[in-house]
Write a structure and sequence with these properties.
Length: 292
């Protein structure tokens, strides 16, 4: 892959309708491997524990920078975001998304302007991060080989491509069992039963992309590239784990079986310790605020 080129020009460009101004800022020399873009949090999103777990697991996977877009969240979620920004502002940045609820509910904008946010994240990352990834809070790209602990471990064993597509498989969280709740299970490491059906590339898939080669990001694949190509990763090497609270309705004729996958167990202890440490720090730093 070519080295990233530092951008030295500073300008401000407005689109013809003057709805979403685009700010082009000077970029630093590339020094991060992975930037993670979190799809918009909207409609008063309130699961602060899930956000905390999602950030900490991605830090284990090797993510060094998070861009988190916020339209509307609960006070508990705001406290988690505030903690991370104060703890290490260079790693976690919260970006306000000022669309109104009416606009967010407009189907033409697709989930509150998700595509615009993803591409904003892409261009903020060019010249700063080699790779960019984007998922929802209930998704995580998991290396499947037991010796591949981080994303970098996994990519180093794959052919050289600009975009790596990871296929989707649903993991169903059984919340009916009260014991699960009392045990404070971590969604992404303690629920091990997933559906054996794996979607094809570009169908619910998510990707890790080389920032220099991508021009326009889509949600499930890249829409435009300057150079390079897409590569569908073998699900035995890397898989998108998509966590749902209830069973998924599959296309007619698709027969699905539930299988046990222990692949995320390799992160369990580290994740549990990290989450506990963050909660303790939040208690210490903000005694009046109830941590997630």
């Amino acid at each position: 892959m070519p080295d990233a080129v530092s951008i030295v020009m500073l300008s401000t460009i407005h689109n013809p309708l003057n709805i979403l101004p685009v700010h082009v800022k000077p970029q630093l020399k590339t020094h991060k491997h992975f930037t993670m873009c979190l799809s918009l949090m909207h409609s008063s999103f309130s699961d602060s524990s899930q956000l905390l777990e999602w950030i900490e697991l991605h830090k284990i996977l090797g993510v060094e920078r998070f861009l988190i877009y916020v339209q509307s969240v609960s006070n508990d979620v705001k406290q988690v975001l505030k903690f991370y920004e104060q703890e290490n502002n260079a790693m976690v940045a919260t970006l306000p998304w000022s669309l109104t609820d009416d606009l967010c509910n407009d189907v033409k904008l697709h989930y509150c302007g998700q595509l615009a946010a993803l591409n904003d994240c892409l261009y903020r990352s060019k010249g700063y991060s080699y790779y960019i990834a984007a998922t929802d809070l209930d998704e995580v790209i998991i290396p499947q080989h037991k010796n591949d602990f981080t994303w970098l471990d996994m990519l180093l064993n794959l052919p050289d491509h600009s975009v790596y597509l990871f296929r989707n498989s649903f993991v169903i969280r059984n919340l009916k069992n009260s014991a699960d709740i009392k045990e404070n299970k971590h969604i992404m490491t303690d629920y091990l039963m997933r559906d054996d059906f794996i979607y094809g590339p570009r169908d619910r898939s998510k990707m890790i992309s080389w920032t220099d080669d991508v021009v326009t990001l889509g949600i499930h694949n890249v829409w435009a590239m300057r150079s390079g190509d897409e590569y569908g990763v073998d699900p035995n090497v890397g898989l998108l784990h998509h966590y749902r609270k209830s069973p998924v309705v599959y296309p007619e004729g698709v027969h699905v079986f539930r299988i046990k996958s222990n692949v995320t167990v390799k992160y369990s202890q580290d994740l549990r310790e990290r989450v506990s440490l963050v909660r303790e720090k939040m208690r210490t730093n903000s005694p009046k605020t109830r941590p997630p």
